[in-house]
Input
Amino acid sequence: MNEENEPSITQFLELAVDWIGSNIDRFATSRHHWSNAAALSALNPVLDLAIVCRAVRAHSVPAVATAVIDTCLDRIASVVENLSFQEALLGSPRTLRYYIWLMALARNAGRAPDATGYRAVRGMLEAGYSEPIFGVSQSAQDALEAGYILTICEIQAPRSSAYGMESLARKILAGAEESANVSDEVAYAVTHAILFLSDMATRPVSGLSIEWRERAAGIAGTLLSGCLRRRHWDLTAELLLCRLALGAPPDPVDARGHSGLLGAQLDEGAVPGPLFSVAERQALPAWQRGQYTFRCCYHTTLAAVLYATTRASGGVRLPALVARNSQRQVLILLGDHQACRAAVIEETGHGPQADLESPVEQSLVNALVAARRVTAGLVSVCPPAGQRGAAGLAVTAIDHGKALGQPLVEEVRRIA
Output
């Protein structure tokens, strides 16, 4: 598609969000009684809608989307509060897990469905009854998902489970990196790992070093190139979002993915999923076409809306990765201890072979390492409190030690 014919992100979002709003009854039907079959059928669409609505609200949502998102959240809250919907999902640990996730998402998005029921669920999980629901999982992806849900609920994982989310993500990424042919299932495991660690691209990826972020961005780029060849817009949207969450440096594959995704949008606003076929839809009676489009396109449209909203709001707030052709810059961004030591030696007037035995001078080196690692996004979680803590360490060391040159002082004080 020619760039001059490509819709703007605002135009794309306006059409997509309008389509979501016009299909609200298909996402989350307003009904008094839910049969077991109806509740199980509705669980995935309403959960996916809740995930995206909560994440979209975490960004600077375009005004065009605000009213529709609020309407969706109100409908989600009414479904979560429905007793027959709750009862239908109590039959298995898997569906109960997703209901707990849905309940937490609704609350985190500013809705407070059934406060008494939510407290009861939290009490049950915190008392140790989470084992059957979030116990030892069969796969790294399943365990990572369980750990993410518990994080959303602000509940500790069961003691018998090894929910090291970062190590699980690295295992998934390494498996994809080693595979000659990556299936869609593995590709989705990669995107979900990155999105779980970044809370759906609403914050910097946690727990991955610069090296692992670079590797993950490379994997995502390779997968994205393959998805573009197949016009697989669902994975394209998720992989573009993952590259934003990782702070990947600009690459032509991102531009192609962005143009392709926006250009694939249907006239009514939906983005075609991998099973969608114009010919199949046209062969259906007119009254069945809307449901066919929803079934084949709802997930891809939600993923595309989340990507477009994240992109339009400026992306995830974290330092971008450095291009691989600048090894010196990579070492500096990593907060290389020797580089920081050399900077302190230079500023304090010591010779190049100085030992820096003074505790104060050692603390200056460590503080500068901490400060640079924060600015490089290397600290595991890197919340504002962690940034201020690292900066406070640096400022305290400066205030109580020998005066450093102004450039270093400014470097650490900027974070404070």
Q: What stands out?
A: The mean pLDDT is 76. Residues 3-312 form a domain with the Glycosyltransferase fold (CATH 1.50.10).
